[in-house]
Write a structure and sequence with these properties.
By secondary structure, the protein is α+β, with helices and mostly antiparallel strands. Helix content is 24%, strand content 31%. The chain has three domains: 245 residues, Immunoglobulin-like (Sandwich), CATH 2.60.40.1730; 291 residues, Neutral Protease, domain 2; 96 residues, no CATH class. The two termini are 32 Å apart. The chain binds zinc ion.
Length: 702
């Protein structure tokens, strides 16, 4: 795979950049300040023994050729009872090597609406050498790209690695960065260096090796470990990277920065001479923002979003374990790098350019930029800390994270309060709930794919991936929360977080956490009074529908009417065996409205056109200003309710808006007497706010 020219430059680069000795490196370097982790009393337990993939990398950026030449040492310990001799590696950057890679074919060469067009510049990673440390010597080991796709490589060891055994590999490689349109690459002199080094797969006890061909919707999966990365860059570059800076030394026109990260499963960095910096802290966590100079005014809004997210996430899912977080704002022309998460570092997107008076009086939004910040930070938990397999179950990080982001907004801004909005148009608010529901799609756009399947099984042409993985998962989980109540939901999610922390959780772990914490059929929480209602949620059924079904809840009030209550008129057999007639009542022919109360009954019919079964509340309001609430288990397709002696005014399904997963609520309320019950102006502004929110959210966040 290496041409003679490349081999020559590889040898030269090794001599220059990697002053390796054969001495083995210490597993735990002596403690330095600052620590990549927070103090133990703030961060909680860290199971260091689970770190089994430690990397030492020395990398040199050449801004002219847009390349990074690097040498790496990987010390990998087999965490399973299996014995292996073939190790799979990801070569993610090769996704951008040619038009016929799996990634390019699955994406059509574009990512979240960004297509490089004529500016396309390929990227690749070329492995120059692979050696194994044996005692004090290094021996070459064979390695080869997967013939099916160059995003995978296998390394074949001369002898197997048994359970608990460690192998140390040394390798050199050149990474050519693409012009950025999909997370990683360069734009002029801005560099976002991610998915850039050959990275070992995950060996699982039950499933064996997990290493996937990289396609459009795939993200990542890796084991925890410690990283020490030396970055050799032009001296004028401002650098942001995973972990904390251990040292920085300048030598003429270049500088060397040493970064260290602990108990993470990836490492990314950015370099750009024109970054301005903005610093903040929260509970001892350093929050560093790198922004283009003309975006510096946005920093406080992003800091506020970052802090509201930290507050909610720490409260609900446990302490943030690392001591730092870096927020990267890609400059103009590098938008393709935005909205992506890496350990202790993420890229965000820009807020809309709106003058302050417009934001104050006419139009304001918390979607562009700040929601991206909340979402990408959220990945520090949902995947950074809870390191699920994003290829096999993308919903476990993207969907649960989106749920947690919306909850962070609700925790910060409240529900039904003046501050409960994501878009505000001339005083009309689009609340967080409406935003959640809106993201599910409308009418023909409702997704039809099940949530729980590998990311590569969502064809780009169908377009369901985001609506299902992010929005449907989030709306389903928030529906469950509204049913069982926040206290119960919080306990179950905390149980999940405890088992997922520094581990590789799956969708089954989520279900088990809920069932073990709440029981198989937790009661539905009644509105307001903290009491429970007679309804219960069948958790196994709920999660099964959520993960494997394709339907949505959809309820409709089909009939709201008044009728004469049937009496006993007609012939009945008497005790002596003869038929005796009871006459019709005097008012038999009266209009039903004119009948006395004891001669009428109200009829309400609710149907369930949607496939998704879920218990639902039905509110029936009467002309005498009383109301009754009935819980329906929602298992059949329809329910008929009658109310003797009562005159119904209207019926409303799900009046407390618990079923956030129901995309269409327009038919959830029906009045007995037709008439206008909506105010046209708020309805118009609401539609406008929805439309704007939809535009603003297009293409946001990974
Ligand atoms: Zn995401």
């Amino acid at each position: 795979m290496s041409t003679p020219r490349v081999l020559l430059s590889a040898a030269a680069a090794c001599a220059l950049v990697f002053p390796w000795t054969n001495a083995s490196r210490a597993k735990s370097p002596p403690p330095t300040e600052p620590d990549p982790l927070r103090p133990s009393d703030a961060r909680g337990e860290v199971p260091f023994e689970r770190g089994n993939a430690d990397y030492w990398i020395e990398a040199r950026l050449d801004p002219e050729s847009k390349t990074v030449v690097a040498g790496a040492t990987l010390r990998w310990t087999n965490p399973t009872g299996r014995t292996v001799s073939v190790l799979p590696f990801h070569l993610y950057m090769n996704a951008f090597r040619a038009e016929d890679t799996a990634w390019m074919r699955s994406s059509g060469g574009s990512h979240r609406g960004i297509t490089p067009g004529k500016e396309l510049d390929w990227g690749y990673v070329d492995v120059w050498s692979m050696q194994r440390a044996v005692g004090d010597t290094l021996e070459d080991v064979p390695y080869a790209e997967d013939p099916a796709d160059p995003t995978l490589m296998t390394v074949t060891l001369p002898e197997p690695v048994g359970p608990g055994r460690t192998v140390e590999l040394r390798y050199t490689f050149e990474t050519k960065l693409p012009r950025v349109f999909a997370r990683t690459g360069y734009a002029d002199d801005f560099f976002m260096v991610a998915q850039w080094f050959p990275k070992i797969g995950v060996l699982e006890e039950a499933g064996g090796w997990k290493a996937h061909v990289f396609t459009l919707n795939d993200e990542f999966y890796a084991d925890f470990g410690d990283y020490e990365v030396t970055l050799d860059v032009p001296a004028e570059m401002v650098v942001g990277a995973s972990g904390v800076r251990v040292s920085e030394t300048t030598d003429g026109s270049r500088k060397r920065i040493v970064q260290r990260a602990k108990m993470v499963h990836d490492f990314a960095w950015t370099a750009y001479a024109d970054f301005a910096e903005h610093e903040g802290t929260y509970e001892g966590i350093r929050i560093r923002q790198l922004l283009p100079e003309d975006r510096l005014d946005d920093a406080p809004a992003h800091l506020e979003a970052q802090i509201l997210a930290l507050r909610s996430f720490e409260d609900r899912y446990g302490p943030y374990p690392w001591s730092t977080i870096t927020i990267v704002h890609p400059p103009k022309g590098a938008g393709g790098a935005g909205g992506m998460e890496y350990p202790t570092l993420y890229t965000t997107s820009n807020r809309l350019d709106l003058p302050a008076f417009v934001r104050r009086h006419l139009f304001d939004e918390r979607v562009a930029g700040t929601f991206t910040t909340v979402h990408e930070f959220g990945h520090q938990y949902f995947q950074g800390l809870f390191a699920s397999n994003e290829h096999e179950q993308a919903w476990v990080d993207e969907g649960l994270n989106t749920m947690a982001d919306l909850l962070a907004y609700e925790d910060a801004y409240g529900r039904g309060t003046e501050d409960d909005w994501v878009v505000r148009v001339v005083g009309h608010r689009l609340p967080i709930d409406a935003f959640t529901r809106l993201s599910l799609g409308r009418r023909g756009g409702i997704p039809v794919s099940p949530i729980d399947r590998p990311a590569s099984h969502f064809p780009a042409e169908v377009g369901d991936y985001a609506a299902v993985t992010y929005s449907k998962t989030a709306a389903a989980m928030l529906t469950l929360r509204r049913l069982v109540g926040d206290d119960a939901f919080r306990k179950a999610m905390a149980a999940y977080a405890a088992r997922a922390r520094f581990a590789h959780p799956t969708g089954d772990d989520l279900v088990h956490a809920f069932v073990e914490t709440l029981g198989a059929h937790p009661p539905v929480e009644s509105a307001g009074d903290g009491d429970t209602s007679p309804a219960t949620v069948d958790l196994a059924d709920f999660f099964d529908q959520m993960r494997h079904g394709t339907g949505f809840p959809d309820f409709r009030v089909r009939r709201v009417s008044l009728r004469r209550a049937l009496g006993t008129a007609g012939y009945h057999r008497s005790e002596d065996g003869t038929l005796v007639e009871t006459p019709l009542p005097e008012d038999f022919d009266e209009k039903v409205d004119d009948l006395p109360d004891d001669a009428i009954e109200s009829v309400v019919v609710v149907t369930r056109p949607g496939e998704f079964r879920v218990p639902v509340e039905i509110l029936v309001a009467f002309e005498d200003d009383t109301a009754e609430t009935v819980w329906w288990d929602g298992r059949e397709r329809s329910v008929v309710l009658t109310f003797a002696g009562k005159r119904v005014r209207y019926a409303a399904v799900d009046p407390a808006h618990r079923i956030l997963l129901e995309p269409d609520r327009l038919d959830n309320t029906r009045y007995r007497r037709p008439g206008s019950h909506t105010d046209a102006v708020p309805a118009f502004l609401g539609a406008l706010a929805e439309g704007i929110a939809l535009l603003v959210t297009v293409g946001v966040a990974s």
